[in-house]
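>> received
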Amino acid sequence: QLQLVESGGGLVQPGGSLRLSCAASKFKLDYYAIGWFRQAPGKEREGVACINSITEGNTYYADSVKGRFTISRVGANHTVYLQMNSLKPEDTAVYYCYANINGVPSWGQGTQVTVSS
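>> returned
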């Protein structure tokens, strides 16, 4: 089964930035759409951003993060990034990356992002 690994979470002050990474063990994500989701305490998991395959490159964002977050991929290291700027306390959540490879959904273990002064 595909193993997705997220990293880059942490504690940051409001207005700060973090960059999350998503990679797969022994698998190249380049030709698959990858999504970032988040789940705050007591709330449902919600979609944050999505990027199409490396050959298409289209990106999509939730309204709540447009203009602040940027999803991208670097083909050389087969990694998908979520650059998060101008962070707000309401961005606090566990962030997950998601891939659907040939009809099989896979989630990472999640990385905690806490925005607090």
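>> The radius of gyration is 13 Å.
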